[in-house]
């Protein structure tokens, strides 16, 4: 068995929007501070040296309550990011109609980028044991930011409230809520992470429906407040139940693995992720506006397209992860990236209600695979598990910047929503960047297997 098989079949975890968890066993005492893969984009899981398999409760009321708290956090973080498509359409057609698609896209891009990039702050604080403080601060900023969004009347106000305030809050919440699962689950960890990950597309299904049904009745301000009140009502769950069960690690990892800059497969893989994430969320932001522009759906039904994207993502987060245990996470990541690219090219020919519904479901499925598989795939490119959290932090920073710039670039290409050529350019940008990502993922896999053969691994 080659190194890739060992890593993927022996170490694959069912991932979420963040990293999978890597367990530490007693044989790893020379590097007992090896981080859990779910630790963060910046640092290891605290107390990982204490997380021996026989010490992890792997269930019980406390563990499942922690999972419930993590599930709620996924609703309040990635769930809001996945909902932004309905806000994009509303801003372009009403509140911010005098601003370009690109300018409006920056709001959602900032939100998603801060969610990933803020790991450089929440990671070290998590290592020091400030989990409850991070959760409290993150929930406050998310809820406060949504309430402030309901009061916004200008572009810069929406950027500050929904883009920056909500985004920073999501970034403080996201890492601790996922990393903490490694302290409570071992054999059932895949099930736990799978259940947690469903919170994101579930919110992406429910919130757009709430917005589309209530906005014409109660207005933008009150429908945004209703979503904020829902998040406020759920806030006590993570505040009460997200508690660490082991002390913070005494030894702290570096934020940067210098050796990674000489690891060619890893560098190619990081470049692949950058291109893939550059175009991955373009349909989430623009499919509703596109359907309205070409009279494919009514304005009332168009909001459900974001819901359908997220419905497909539910299965896309689960099925590819289970298949990865047999086929390999790298191979499944390549397959879902190329599939997303093919579907994005197919978006050019969608001109009917049935077509856009099928596109939304299938693209949502592939999106779920592309977003959830990288944490497991990167395990195969990390020779030292003690550097796994650091290496993940480095590439997730890159992915965060790709998400930040991707949809605004698409918006700049669009310029005028009434221009057919601009729409073709936007769709081609999304499809081609995903295609480049798939090619580079394949190249990284080839280089990795070639290096494994040279090393004589069997």
Automatic annotation (TrEMBL):
InterPro entries: MFS (IPR011701), MFS_dom (IPR020846), MFS_trans_sf (IPR036259), Proton-linked_MCT (IPR050327). GO terms for cellular component: membrane. Keywords: Membrane, Transmembrane, Transmembrane helix. It is found in: Membrane. Residues 1-14 have a biased composition (Basic and acidic residues). Residues 34-50 have a biased composition (Low complexity). It is a multi-pass membrane protein. Residues 1-52 are annotated as: Disordered. One of its GO terms (molecular function) is transmembrane transporter activity. The chain crosses the membrane at residues 62-81, 101-122, 134-153, 159-181, 190-211, 217-242, 254-281, 301-320, 332-350, 356-381, 393-414, 426-447. This is Uu.00g026350.m01.CDS01.
